[in-house]
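Thread: adenosine-5'-diphosphate complex, take 2
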Amino acid sequence: MVLKVLFLASEVAPFAKTGGLADVTGSLPKALAALGHDVRVVMPAYESVERAALDGRWALRAVPFSLSVPMAAGAIAAGAFEGQLPGSQVPVYFVAERSLLARPLLYGYDDDPYRFAFFSRAALDLVVAALGWRPDVVHVHDWHAAAAVLWLATAGQDDDRYRGITTLLTIHNLQHQGWASWNLLGQLGIVTHPLREEPYGSINLLARGIYHATKINTVSPSYAREIMTSTGGAGLDGLLRHRHADVHGILNGLDYDVWNPATDVNLARRFNLRTLDRRPANKRALQARLGLPQRDDVPLVAMVTRLDAQKGLGITGHIVHLLMNNAAGEAQFVLLGSGASEYEAVFRHLAGYHRQKMAAVLRYDGSLAPLVYAGSDVFLMPSLFEPCGLGQLIAMRYGSVPVARATGGLADTVRDGVTGFTFSDYDVSDFWEALRRALYIWHHDHGSWRAMQLAGMAMDSSWLTSARSYQQLYEWGMASAR
Ligand code: ADP
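Output below.
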């Protein structure tokens, strides 16, 4: 059966991106379309999108009508642009409203909850009322679009055009929840009761999405379990447990058009499973580019990451210190990352001390990252929590063996002793022990090391498998909503 699915998200690659959310909303619709489904995507027209529409970039066009979005303060006039996800026929619409949405940053404004509630309401109005396209499923992503679930389940039930539409809420990161003042409900024309999670006078948009969505999922099965516990639940575990029968976990895929060592133009030498012997040219190129000695006989350990506490940096500084002091034999270390200044300072300091064997590149560099994946022997991902994680998937596809903490999506994708090395406790000694095991095999058992590289490279991380799981979840949702 062909399903009509409407994606609502605050970011979609390549139009606007701050994190993995945009990668999902930019690739999953294409994979669903490839399965034959009819998918449309709506996101806000930020300032950069409005500029792109003027410049002709991405071939965006203004839709030939205007919207009058009903909010309590009075109807707000809005427009929309229309385009397609690059490399596909999937339509993308951009809700355009100058004062609320067309701002230089995606997030970080005091009125973010109001902005995104307006976006959610306007997106439904645009697609369902104005374009007359009634989806089978409205698939919303994170708190920014959760107001659509809330509205559909309450006020929207009084309108024939919206009644009975199935909703799926995907949680990409439970830490961001969208707290707003109670007035927001009035703005949306919703009369309802407070949730247990909401202190007097406040609402939590993600909690309301969880409360009302037909189905809920996160981006890995392990993270789906973790968020139902008090340690991983960020205050919403009780609500999630209440809905546990409807909470699922589906791993993110990798966009194989982008992440492919056989075609990646950023590599010094391209390779695949059968030509793994060409891979070391990338290690030499990486060493040369970063001013490290070009040596094949020492392992090159690497990290590519946002410098955020979530990524396990609290236990990484000491590990790098041990590694650079030859506690597991000679090694090189490369970090590509940017973010919190305290972590940048740690790596800058260590790199300054160990110039001959360590490089810290403290910026976002999309063309250097592939060379780090292809040129490193070991890839570190000691995350405190990890909803899914793309770094380990890319590393494995590029023949770098991950040493990862078994949490969330890392626990679901890195198989200890088969495709990588894992550790359980968030502490330095467990992390060090896993890294030592990896380096021991790298030094002493070349055959096993190669087998692990090949197992990682052969792993199926394509979107196709995930898209099939989403299709099933949509169908379950529609069956339970009937
Ligand atoms: P998250 O979305 O939490 O940041 P993921 O592992 O899901 O973590 O995705 C991280 C993505 O961002 C990967 O594609 C990684 O290569 C990329 N990335 C992170 N930091 C950098 C950087 N400094 N330079 C280039 N790419 C980076």
